[in-house]
């Protein structure tokens, strides 16, 4: 490697070997700015300009993803990871769907190329994803009123939509449930979209505060965006009933709000793709204009492939065309065009009737395992807890997660004493629970609930 | 689909601000004479109109839109010299053999899973990428002063780097070359930076305006960020010499300007990975800090997989650790974590000596074919006696040639010869073959000899 040339004068250049202990680059706030003038080729280790990033502080670990990191570091053999929502088998192993492996083999055999996708993503995927969501024959699709672009799973789709809101609905607020998925706020913050909350979770009933929800949606300034979880609310697992969904649609229409669905669990909540899309389809029936962010992370197990979509239902095909063009304008300076691999997998699976049938079966299996483990956990709690506490909320909740009602201190106890890893809001991922571990978990929950405040 | 022309119902938006936005967009320029039908479906929303009424049709992206237009053209002699994607001599896209091998290996590995990557991406990929660009013996790596995060190809790396700087760096202005890749200004503006330009291309010499470059960078406020194309400048193909790079480095370090390298063509420009990384390594060798955005779209042919990396070289490993933690805060609300497939392919290839060597051979073959196309085109114009100095075709480096043609000439070539390129006169040599060179030469000859 060429040695750097030192110029006599004002420039301060470092010789090659910089030993860390010779440099006083600390965080104590001192300013080690020593210029060096070298008169010979003897290189001296001297400190020169401080780092431009010196003032940067260490960010805290992500509250959700950080849980898995902490779990990995734990050496206790009883440890249990109920943090991130990633499906595990009964043996607590990650699961790649058989139909996904099939699709990937097909793709490799076919020798698909790796050309750039268009900015809006893979056309076959976009078609399939909208049809999955609304149903193939649905008027919104027949009338070409849905603007769909492939996105980077749920997060990426939400972010692109948020950027559209910031640009074209300046000042409009997004109203999000209290609580909601931890990353929602970050997404809207970074997109510079203001947000506020509507009441959702009632800790007294460990159920839905429906009146609070309706009141707060009503209170929001007209034309606000209302963030709704299509099914399997994250983190609570508490979904409105069909009747409640009707009332939610009513109040949203009354206030000319714009619904914004986050659909990360279609097919995963009940086991049925159609059933889990009921809330979205209800709003489509009403002729409303709204946003839907989709993710295939969980229902097709494609977590790391980052495959999802943003759909915008518009009142006309013309509006949909224009909206799509503006979504593209946002995606281009963010990542240019989306990754092809996950999109191809989805398109292949959905496009082939046999594979589609196989997918549905595997999805039912996954959803079924979670329902079974819910029941087992409930049974363990009821048999072990002599206090008479009502644990039935566990059975009423739906989807990957359960909101245990444990507070932060209690959640900490779960981790510190029992090596059960979960998020501080009391959320546990049932997808990470096995039948074999239900009793242990029940013990941990009972202990944390009764003995810690 | 039937089209109906009906006036959309007015005052559809419930709030003043939307009407305001609507007015702004109407005056900003109308959309095409397209259909503007509003379906009055029985289940229309309460307001009767659309909340999106004020959104106009955005024009196609100037670069990617070229392919859109090309696809629509039915002419049998059409030629796509727009986007920089490599084509074989037969005009076909190319998936490298070594990439297919890597994919087969991945599929055969029964232990592979699709769990979320960490926010920073595939760790092994990150380490190998840093080594590739900085050199395996780089002191910055040895001293643990580099943080590398997997991003969505070059664009994603630039965007994440830009957002990080906008949040944490004291100077919010970035200087980009005049001209530069069309997407650069948009990326950095949306990232939250102010974009300014520095002189780069000299149309009269079709070379580097080095004096102008030094003046403009010299006049930049201390600490400003400067975007540098590591090699194979896009769109001009004009690179500084090593001596010029050294002068640029000294000037920048003396003013504390922050280098932000865009490396999209490592190995593709000269055929040598190390040669193409030299400017970056020169900067790192002086112990200073810099950012580097890497893309594997071209050099590994992984375009659609969106594989890239952002490396930030810091003064100390402590700083690098803190910087990494803040990069994660930029990434998480953007897309949570990056895609696994492309990065896995790269890791398989870079970690295996045989595959790596095979890759360098395939890479050199692509670079050589492009150099050969340059020679053929130059020769073809010489044979036709096309007026003007066309030596820049063989002097410029990388995938593109900045022809020097103006938008009117470009338009003519598209209309009459069905040759597609960006309106700045940039052509992708990667899209040429021996068979199509004559057609292109005819077109260039035509516009060079007539007033268009």
UniProtKB/TrEMBL annotation, chain A:
Listed transmembrane segments: none
A molecular function GO annotation: L-aspartate:2-oxoglutarate aminotransferase activity
Gene3D superfamilies xrefs: Aspartate Aminotransferase, domain 1, Type I PLP-dependent aspartate aminotransferase-like (Major domain)
EC number(s) per entry: 2.6.1.1
The species this protein was found in: Capsella rubella
Note: In eukaryotes there are cytoplasmic, mitochondrial and chloroplastic isozymes.
PANTHER family: ASPARTATE AMINOTRANSFERASE, ASPARTATE AMINOTRANSFERASE, CYTOPLASMIC
Catalytic activity: L-aspartate + 2-oxoglutarate = oxaloacetate + L-glutamate
Keyword Repressor: no
Domain Aminotransferase class I/classII large residue range list: 78-445
Subunit structure, interactors included: Homodimer.
Names of the cofactor(s): pyridoxal 5'-phosphate
Entry keyword Transferase: yes
Enzyme class: transferase
Protein name as it appears in the record: Aspartate aminotransferase
Example GO BP: amino acid metabolic process
SUPFAM superfamilies per the UniProt record, alphabetical: PLP-dependent transferases
Cited function: Amino acid aminotransferase important for the metabolism of amino acids and Krebs-cycle related organic acids. No activity with D-Asp or D-Ala as amino donors. In plants, it is involved in nitrogen metabolism and in aspects of carbon and energy metabolism.
Family to which the UniProt record says this protein belongs: Belongs to the class-I pyridoxal-phosphate-dependent aminotransferase family.
UniProt keyword annotations, A-Z: Aminotransferase, Pyridoxal phosphate, Transferase
TrEMBL record, chain B:
A GO molecular function held by the record: pyridoxal phosphate binding
EC number(s) on file: 2.6.1.1
InterPro entries, A to Z: Aminotransferase_I/II_large, Asp_trans, NHTrfase_class1_PyrdxlP-BS, PyrdxlP-dep_Trfase, PyrdxlP-dep_Trfase_major, PyrdxlP-dep_Trfase_small
Entry keyword set: Aminotransferase, Pyridoxal phosphate, Transferase
Co-factor requirement: pyridoxal 5'-phosphate
Gene3D superfamilies: Aspartate Aminotransferase, domain 1 (3.90.1150.10), Type I PLP-dependent aspartate aminotransferase-like (Major domain) (3.40.640.10)
Assembly with partners or alone: Homodimer.
Cited NCBIfam families: PRK09257.1
Protein name: Aspartate aminotransferase
Species name: Capsella rubella
């Amino acid at each position: 490697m060429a040695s750097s040339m030192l110029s006599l004068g004002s420039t301060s250049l470092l010789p090659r070997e910089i030993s860390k202990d010779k440099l006083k680059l600390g965080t104590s706030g001192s300013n080690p700015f020593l210029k060096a003038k070298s008169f010979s080729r003897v290189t001296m280790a001297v400190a020169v300009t401080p780092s431009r990033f010196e003032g940067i502080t260490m960010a805290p670990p992500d509250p959700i993803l950080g849980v898995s990191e902490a779990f990995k570091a734990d050496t206790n053999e009883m440890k249990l990871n109920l943090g991130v929502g990633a499906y595990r088998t009964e043996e607590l192993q990650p699961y790649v769907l058989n139909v996904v492996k099939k699709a990937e083999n097909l793709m490799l055999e076919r020798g698909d190329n790796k050309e750039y996708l268009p900015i809006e993503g893979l056309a076959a995927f976009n078609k399939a994803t909208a049809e999955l969501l609304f149903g193939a024959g649905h008027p919104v699709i027949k009338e070409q009123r849905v603007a769909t672009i492939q996105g980077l799973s749920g997060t990426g789709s939400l972010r692109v939509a948020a950027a559209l809101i910031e640009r074209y609905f300046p000042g409009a607020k997004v109203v999000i449930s209290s609580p909601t998925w931890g990353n929602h706020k970050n997404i809207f913050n970074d997109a510079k979209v203001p947000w506020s909350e509507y009441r959702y979770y009632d800790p007294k009933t460990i159920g839905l505060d429906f009146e609070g929800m309706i009141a707060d949606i009503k209170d929001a300034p007209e034309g606000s965006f209302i963030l709704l979880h299509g099914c399997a609310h994250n983190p609570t697992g508490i979904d409105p009933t069909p009747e409640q969904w009707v009332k939610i649609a009513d109040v949203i229409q009354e206030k000319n709000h714009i619904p914004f669905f986050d659909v990360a669990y279609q097919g995963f909540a009940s086991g049925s793709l159609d059933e889990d899309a009921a809330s979205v389809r209800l709003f489509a029936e009403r002729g409303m204009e709204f946003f839907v962010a989709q993710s295939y992370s969980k229902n097709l197990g494609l977590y790391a492939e980052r495959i999802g979509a943003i759909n915008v239902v518009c009142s006309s095909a013309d509006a949909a065309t224009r909206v799509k063009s503006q979504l593209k304008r946002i995606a281009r300076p963010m990542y240019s065009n989306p990754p092809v691999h996950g999109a191809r997998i989805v398109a292949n699976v959905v496009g082939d009737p046999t594979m589609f049938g196989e997918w549905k079966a595997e999805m039912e299996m996954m959803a079924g395992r979670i329902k079974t483990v819910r029941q087992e956990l409930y049974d363990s709690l009821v048999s072990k807890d002599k206090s008479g506490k009502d644990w039935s909320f566990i059975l009423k909740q739906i989807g990957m997660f359960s909101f245990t009602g444990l507070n932060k201190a209690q959640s900490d106890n779960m981790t510190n004493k029992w090596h059960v890893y979960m998020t501080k809001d009391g959320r546990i991922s049932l997808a990470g629970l096995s039948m074999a571990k239900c009793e242990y978990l029940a013990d941990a929950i009972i202990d944390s609930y009764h003995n810690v405040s | 689909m039937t089209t109906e022309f009906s006036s959309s119902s007015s005052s559809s938006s419930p709030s003043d601000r939307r009407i305001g936005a609507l007015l702004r967009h109407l005056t900003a320029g109308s959309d095409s004479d397209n259909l503007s039908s509003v379906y009055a479906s029985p289940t229309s929303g309460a307001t009767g109109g659309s909340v999106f009424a004020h959104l106009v049709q955005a024009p196609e992206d100037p670069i990617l839109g070229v392919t859109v237009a090309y696809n629509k053209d039915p002419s049998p002699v059409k030629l796509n010299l727009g986007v920089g994607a490599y084509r074989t001599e037969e005009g076909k896209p190319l998936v490298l053999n070594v990439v297919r091998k890597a994919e087969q290996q991945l599929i055969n590995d029964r232990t592979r899973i699709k769990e979320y990557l960490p926010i920073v991406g595939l760790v092994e990929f990150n380490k190998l990428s840093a080594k590739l660009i900085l050199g395996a013996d780089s002191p910055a790596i040895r001293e643990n002063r580099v943080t590398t995060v997997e991003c969505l190809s070059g664009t994603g790396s630039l965007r994440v780097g830009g957002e990080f700087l906008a949040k944490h760096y004291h100077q919010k202005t970035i200087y980009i070359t005049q001209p530069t890749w069309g997407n650069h200004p948009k990326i950095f503006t949306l990232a939250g930076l102010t974009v300014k330009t520095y002189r780069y291309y000299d149309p009269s010499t079709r070379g580097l305006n080095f004096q102008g470059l030094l003046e403009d960078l010299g006049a930049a406020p201390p600490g400003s960020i400067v975007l540098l194309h590591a090699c194979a400048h896009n769109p001009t193909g004009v690179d500084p010499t090593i001596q010029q790079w050294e002068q640029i480095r000294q000037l920048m370090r003396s003013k504390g300007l922050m280098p932000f390298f865009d490396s999209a063509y490592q190995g593709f420009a000269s055929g040598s990975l190390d040669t193409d990384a030299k400017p970056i390594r020169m900067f790192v060798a002086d112990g200073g800090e810099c950012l580097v955005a890497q893309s594997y779209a071209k050099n590994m042919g992984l375009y659609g997989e969106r594989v890239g990396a952002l490396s930030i070289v810091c003064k100390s490993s402590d700083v690098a650790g803190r910087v990494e933690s803040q990069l994660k805060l930029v990434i998480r609300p953007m897309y949570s974590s990056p895609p696994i497939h492309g990065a896995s392919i790269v890791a398989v290839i870079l970690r295996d000596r045989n595959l790596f060597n095979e890759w360098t051979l395939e890479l050199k073959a692509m670079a050589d074919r492009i150099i050969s196309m340059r020679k053929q085109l130059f020769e073809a114009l010489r044979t036709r006696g096309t007026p003007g100095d066309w030596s820049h075709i063989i002097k410029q480096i990388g995938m593109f040639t900045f022809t020097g043609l103006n938008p009117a000439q470009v338009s003519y070539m598209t209309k009459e010869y069905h040759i597609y390129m960006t309106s700045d006169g940039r052509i992708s040599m990667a899209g040429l073959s021996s068979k199509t060179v004559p057609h292109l030469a005819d077109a260039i000859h035509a516009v060079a000899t007539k007033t268009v």
